[in-house]
Design brief:
Immunoglobulin-like, eight-stranded parallel β-barrel, TIM Barrel, 3 domains, about 25% helix, Beta-galactosidase, alpha/beta, about 25% strand, glycosidase
């Protein structure tokens, strides 16, 4: 068998994940495979071991479910692998080491999580384990070895492969303080003490420590799998040849409708050759696993995943013949198209001209715990994301953490890099960005990006220093930004449209002599009662400035327009943001599509591929049925010679050539949920 045949996961594949309950040990395997194949999937992600094993394990630290007695063979895994392989369906073994049963916990207390108060982490009689202890460090490879000795599985997936402070009930147990963690952390941090929880100043360094521990452990398990079964992948969230991301709804917060696209984009924007598995959760919430999420939302997640080059995984709870899902028929139509056009999706990689850098997400940066700086950064990012998407400016998402090892060469495929409210970048990243600009790249900086105290880190920045920052609240109430300020000397509270609210933060810079400022900011004035709501004056502070450097340019905004768009949602704010983007990167796409349609740009070999995603049904908190559109056109600026345009959903082709301006025009007669436009040379 060749390397390419062994490494099957480097080509497009679609997975069906059944998160089993113990009572599913007696499932009708052929019936389940019928469901998997009806959806168009060719891979089955199946529970095998860890918390509960679905095969008769001989290892003393595994707990085979008693429901195996309901099977004639007594072995679900053996039956499933044999039947799946007979149909050409691959099987990925799911293992979860995060918890052990009560008897194992009593026998091996030295494997368990210990809080700062010396207490275990227990949920429904299951005891949480610690990745630094022997169960993970030594016996993970024993579990993998037993599975490989018995079954020719096609991959391994480890669930909850991390240090976990929270249990399923949402209780925060803090940082593990077991003897093994204390010893390892002291060595890592030159004698440093373990933090207690996320509020501890030591917590950021502890996060670095846990990432290093997980990377080391994952690397050793991957090496053991490769030694015993060459080409068999280990699936973890990061650090392996086949990383995964997970997307699903969660009650208590408004779902980010572009989450699936972000999950894939941050993994492929700077590493297009890396395959990505995207777990798309079909149920409503972890506490309501048998209530289905809205089918239309699930379809949007699925489409975003494949549009940006991900491999979709339909993730259901339990035996699908026992717990029916309303998604499967509609999902099957999309997955089958993905499989039928494997030549297009094989090697599909991001090709947008704009990079939008996302703040690294944690529970704090998502705003769940009220962290002001992190919440503002996320609002600024999401406002920019919405503005670009709605105005059809294709972009790829880069995670903030990826900047640490980036090079100017890696950034050169982008005409523009947008960095929203990311805080200090450090000397090495700033130097790379400066080199990128001098080579012809462009930067749009917002919020506190590249600011360390009052110092400006990026030498190509339009400003020399930061002199003052005003944060949201009463200091900014009734302060406005004016893209087209009135001439000096006008009456107080005389404005020129548009008038934009200043929300989030306002910064005052000392601008360089060669910077070109634009717009202006007003002073605050009373906002009530109406009779007294006047007195605004236009200040000398601009909204921002642009400075050319080498062959590139940098624009810095003094106001957080992304956060303003997140909060206010007004067209004037959005269009001013996009105007600043267009000044730095000429639009690739012009279209008469409504704003609720997203255009994702990618490449597959020598073909340009556009996914046109109809999101007219997206609403706050849900996704409704889309509105079909007819006779829409897209004009694409490209350097490629184009001879034929294929519409994969419509099943038609049309001849098209670039005009004198280098623009190719494509007409979509009927746009339903989505279309895939392939421009072939």
């Amino acid at each position: 068998m060749t390397t390419s045949e062994r490494e099957w996961w480097r080509r497009p594949f679609a997975t069906f994940q059944t998160n089993l309950q113990e009572i599913d040990a007696g499932m009708d395997v052929p019936a389940v495979l019928d469901t998997i194949e009806s959806v168009g999937a060719d891979t089955w992600l199946l529970n095998v071991g860890g918390i509960v094993s679905f095969h008769p394990s001989d290892l003393p630290f595994q707990t085979p479910t008693s429901y195996l007695a309901t099977r004639p063979s007594g072995d679900l895994v053996g039956d499933a692998v044999a039947a799946a392989h007979a149909r050409g369906v691959r099987v990925i073994a799911r293992i979860d080491l995060s918890k052990v049963a009560e008897p194992i916990a009593r026998e091996h207390p030295d494997w368990l999580f210990v809080s700062a108060r010396g207490e275990p982490q227990v949920y429904e009689s299951l005891h949480s384990t610690c990745p630094n202890r022997a169960y993970w460090q030594t016996h993970a490879v024993d579990i993998v070895g037993e599975v490989l000795d018995r079954y020719p599985v096609d991959g391994f997936f480890f669930n909850w492969f991390s240090f976990n402070a929270h249990d399923y009930a949402g209780r925060d147990h803090g940082v593990c303080h077991c003897e093994d963690c204390a010893r390892a952390y002291a060595a890592f941090g030159d004698g440093a003490r373990l933090p207690v929880d996320a509020d501890d100043p030591e917590h950021p360094r502890w996060q670095e420590f846990t990432r290093a521990c997980i990377a080391d452990l994952g690397g050793r398990i991957a090496e053991e799998i490769e030694r015993r079964s060459p080409g068999t992948p280990l699936v973890l969230q990061r650090g392996t040849a086949l990383p995964y991301g997970e997307v699903g709804n969660s009650l208590g917060r408004v779902a980010w409708p572009h989450a699936s696209g972000d999950v894939v984009s941050v993994r492929k924007s700077l590493a297009p050759e890396v395959p990505v598995l995207v777990l798309l959760v079909s149920f409503l919430d972890i506490g309501y696993r048998f209530a289905a999420d809205q089918t239309e939302r699930f379809l949007q997640y699925l489409l975003q995943a494949i549009a940006r080059g991900g491999n979709p995984c339909v993730y259901v709870m339990g035996d699908p013949t026992r717990v029916p899902s309303p998604h499967l028929e509609a999902v099957g139509e999309v997955v089958r198209l993905f499989r039928w056009h494997a030549d297009v999706y094989d090697g599909l990689h991001p090709a947008a001209p704009i990079a939008l850098v996302r703040p690294s997400l944690t529970s704090r940066s998502a705003g769940y715990e009220g962290d002001g700086d992190a919440a503002l950064a996320l609002d600024e990012y999401r406002g920019l994301h919405r503005a670009l998407q709605e105005r059809h400016r294709p972009f790829d998402v880069v995670d903030r953490s990826a900047l640490a090892g980036i090079t100017a060469e890696a950034l050169e495929r982008f005409e523009l890099v947008v960095l929203p409210a990311l805080g200090p970048l450090g000397a090495s990243v700033s130097a790379v960005l400066d080199e990128y600009v001098r080579r012809g790249g462009h930067l749009l900086l917002t919020g506190d990006t590249a600011l360390d105290g009052g110092a400006v880190e990026v030498s190509t920045h339009p400003a020399t220093t930061l002199s003052d920052t005003e944060r949201h609240g009463s200091a900014l109430r009734s302060v406005y930004a004016l893209p087209s300020p009135p001439p000096p000397g006008g009456l107080p509270s005389s404005f020129s449209a548009p008038v934009l609210p200043v929300l989030g933060e306002l910064r005052r810079f000392a601008w360089r002599d060669d910077a070109v400022p634009f717009g202006a900011v007003t002073t605050a004035a009373p906002w009530g009662p109406p009779e007294k709501s006047f007195g605004h004056r236009v200040t000398e502070d601009p909204m921002g400035a642009t400075r050319r450097s080498g062959r590139g340019a940098v624009t810095a905004l003094a106001v957080t327009l992304g956060a303003a768009y997140s909060a206010a949602g007004t067209r004037e704010v959005r269009d001013e943001l996009v105007r600043r983007v267009d000044d730095l990167a000429r639009p690739w796409v012009e279209t008469d599509l409504p704003e609720q349609v997203e255009v994702v740009v990618a490449r597959s070999g020598d073909r340009l591929v556009l996914h046109v995603l109809n999101q007219t049904g997206v609403r706050d908190g849900t996704v409704l049925r889309h509105v079909p559109l007819r006779e829409v056109s897209i004009r694409i600026r490209t350097v490629d010679a184009v001879g034929r345009v294929d519409l994969l959903v419509d099943g038609t082709s049309q001849r098209s050539e670039r005009d004198a301006a280098g623009v190719v025009t494509v007409t979509i007669r009927h746009l339903g949920l989505f279309e895939v436009v392939v421009l072939a040379p």
